[in-house]
Write the structure tokens for this entry.
Amino acid sequence: MLRAAAIAERAGVPSVSIVTTPFMQQAAVVSKGVGLPSLPIAEYPGVPMTDGSDAVTRKIEALLPQIVAGLAGARDVARAAVAEPGPRDVVARGTLDEIQELYHRNLWSDGLPVIPPTVERVERFLSQTRRRPDEVIGRLLPENRAATVWSIAVNGVMAGCRPEYMPLLVAIVEAIAEPIFRVEDAGSTPGWEPLVIVSGPIARRLDLNHGQGVMRVGRQANTSLGRFVRLYLRNVAGLRIPPGAGDKGSIAGSFNVALAEDEDAAAALGWPTFGADQGFTRDDSVVTVQSVVSVSPPIYSAGTRALEHARILAEVFGGACGYWSSIGMKYARWEPLLVLGPSIARVIADDGWSKDDLRRYLHEHVTITARQAETYALQVGATSYTLEAHVKAGVLPAAYATSSDPERAVPVFVQPEKIGLLVAGDPGRNQSKGYVNNHIQGGRVSKKVATP
Amino acid sequence: MTPAEPVYDVVWPLAPSAAPAGSLAARSDDLRGKTVGELWDYLFKGEEIFPLIRKALEARYPGIRFVEFEVFGSTHGRDEKELAATLPGLLRQHGCDAVISAVGA
């Protein structure tokens, strides 16, 4: 919203933006990031979604002087440029405890101890890539900092990565810098978290866990890669929870450890690997990043036929996705991920089902009512949203407005081909788990890892 | 004797700012007769808020007119990138002298 105002200002059209009080700190970060720290703002006190019509009317009347001042009187406020350290500048010297304290105080850490990023340690990481330290991979909003290879190495050191992870770290940042990932929205209120999925030979070479306990903190590569992403978002994208700003995740969640697929198990089924589903070969080392906003319960399914498992997966994974599917429908691009336990994938494949067969089954058998979809979206803040209007606008297919009956069933999964399927977890148990992504925010992006 | 505790010379974990330089557009001191565009992210009751603003400003500033939010489409979500490419042209096309962008951050 502020970015739209900034576009107008740069086109020579004055703006004022209405921002609610709880978002004022976020607004300051965004305004600075777009290069217009004086963007005029009219502050709406409180939370519109819990205000009745009378309160909204009263507050807008009170807001008018700020709106008028923004449009007709606002002027740039001169701000002195603040000099920032260069990449090799030593910003402090201290003991381990002193360094921890400094990084905590400056909001440069995630609350856990960090490995002190000395020039020597950073250079060890840089030796693992052919990229120049000053090469800019992309610009990361909202703080709008240049994602340099140097900064990737620094945060990789801090997160406890090994130097040999550096090519993966670069690929991760290449992915999150892609416009379709929308890192600028990684601080939105749903509090989504990136999930890194590592495919191909590099997963084995770096000892990533793909088996029992795959999503648990505890294996160095999985854990430190996940931690790196959160640190990098804090330090370079500027997404910090209070006492910082920029990350407005209302409750949010912790970082995800990186996920790897049991590719031998997938290949033994005759199924394409997750990496192949993203358009790569099994010989390619690939990083995929997508958002995760919530996780399903553990999904236990039993039986010797595909349908027995598919029914349970549809109920539990579909149920976990149901509430948030309203937002998936609003933007019509949604990429939930289902991690299938190897034993379950085996039964499904042995029954002759392909991954697309399972996707199709989920698409056809998981529904909610139109009333639920519109009601859920309304709670989030989509106060004028209807499925019918979205069908008319060409955003959703006709299946979402076959009648005006609010109790009509509509598919939870808008595009079945976008359901991610991956084989991982405990081969000795019959458990799967689903990961719900945050609609268009954190869209799935894959990057080939360039090894030195 | 206790060995000296190691000390570390550490570097900055942030990265260079890429924020572009910029300044606010020049403002008129008077909104009378001006055209105001409504930019909405289609969230948080904008459909209630914009009509209230319209009514109040029309009462204060004779000749003020509004280009309503439907003309521009949502500034949030799937249309945002496209809007960034098309918004300056739309503002020119509709003769907007100013915009109100709402609601949120």
